[in-house]
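ARCHIVE CARD
SHELF: 3
SLOT: left
DATA:
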Amino acid sequence: MEKRSLSFYVLAAFFGLFVLFLYGPTLTIGILSFQGPTGGLTFPMRGVSLHWFRELFEQQAVGDIWGAFRRSFALGLMVMVTTVVVSVMSGLAFRKRFKGSGVLFYMAITSLVIPSILISLGVGLIFNQLGLKIHWATSGFGSQLTWTLPFGLLIMFAVFNRFDKSYEEAARDQGATQWQTIRHVVLPIIAPSLIGVALFGFTLSYDEFARTLLTSGSYNTLPLEVFGMTTNVTTPVIYALGTLTTLFSFGIIGVFLISVRIMAKRRAKMGNDAGKAV
């Protein structure tokens, strides 16, 4: 058996502390959400129950929790679809160099280094100047795209940079049109990356706070609703909400990972069938 050095245990302990730092607050909230009916916001716990989870599904006097959840979910889907479509189209367009492509690329990713609150303020001011109503589905949607699109673009550019064009050439040699080549050759090959872009788009939108703060209008998204609850809620019901939203996020990630696994198995099976046919 290989003997571990002292440096190994030091690095392992450091990594353990790092993981605890990342997930400790989430675990603490999860534990405190199971407080009894007389429990408070801090330790020690006063009993164990599901009381505060049941409170979430009753009429709340502190805000519109489920309305905010529906808005965040709908906004996440809108951002996800738009991010995937625009990223794929941009990735295809940037495969060929054109005048101004470098400037356009850097302009597209500049929003990643600009403070998010300034993006939110800028989008809100533009809508005001144009006489448009500030609403989570319009101005909020636009401000969140400035956050998700650069990630989608970077992923797609990396994917197409490694893409083997011989597959497309083979399809064209067989008489396929450009659209048929994209639909039946390119998209199936890059499908796992598309799922990754979709996951980025949805999760980044679902929990985005700063870029939505000044662009959501009179209707809060879930992160804004949770922030508002921190100022007027003094019961563990806010912890119960945090636990459920965290589980929902992990569930979404799990669905995407399962989709990637299913697609990988399907591609492997198709490859084996093609090999047998040959």
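SLOT: right
DATA:
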Amino acid sequence: MDLVGACRAFVQVSERGSFTAGAAAARMSQSVASRRVAALEQHLGERLFERTSRRARLTPFGRSLLPAARRLVLAAEELEHEAATAHQRPVPLAVPDTCPTPELARLAAAARGLGTVLDPRTAAPAERPHLVRSQQVRAALVAVPPDQARWSVPLGLATVAEPAARRLFLESLRPRRTRRGRPRRVWVQPEDDVPHVRDRLTRLGDSVGLLPAQVSVATSLTQAAAQVLSGDDLLLCSPVQAREFALHWRPLGELDMERTYGLLAAEEGDAERLGDRLGDAIAHCLGAGEEPAEARAAHPRPAADRTRRGGPPHSRGTPSA
């Protein structure tokens, strides 16, 4: 039996002295109100109303139970109000500051379509875990090693001048005696200043004979992009970022590199729920799965690899040497 619905009908009928008027006030048909009151009487073991053709008059038993029924109905209405308020309470999510504003808006719109009011807040890589631990946000997209990643963003090198080759080899940046001026640099933006990206690139630079300063970590994406746009340096970035700066993107020749993410949440289970519900929208926001024609031509991947978004990390082969 629907105890709350039955008590709501009981209260409204008692206040109006009529099943017809009471049913209308309770937003149900007269027949439904009659059935619910009858079920409540059967459940409680005694009649609540003396019924006549025109009036419904409370019995002594009904009068004694009416205050408790009112409290139950009010408590149910308060619960429903709190639930509606909780659904509309924003869920703060810390995201990389590399996410384009239009994609953040689409992520928030996708969440609204699922009944969640998402509040994306951009933050630097090192700041995002701190925001979760200090409970300033409910969850955060954080950099994780590739074997722990849920989303993977391809990384390559971008330049002002369009390269003739389908891949850019770091070895080609090795200083030459015939070249005048300072050697070309690869700029690493703060989002990629994490061990599994920065250290791999640095070790590769050392192995192919680059000078230490040729792989440099910038203080901001703006600074890194400005260095590239004003000369012939290169930016380590995703295909989406390269398009934003009107740069020409190519994958690295010596190894495959990815920017890899997972979800960190303050409450157990929040990360899995957010990831399951918004996995595809988060992938679009990060640029995960984006792979330009240059990358596909240089290093084809299985179709399932290219199209998978928002799921567990795909299997990875041995990086090309």
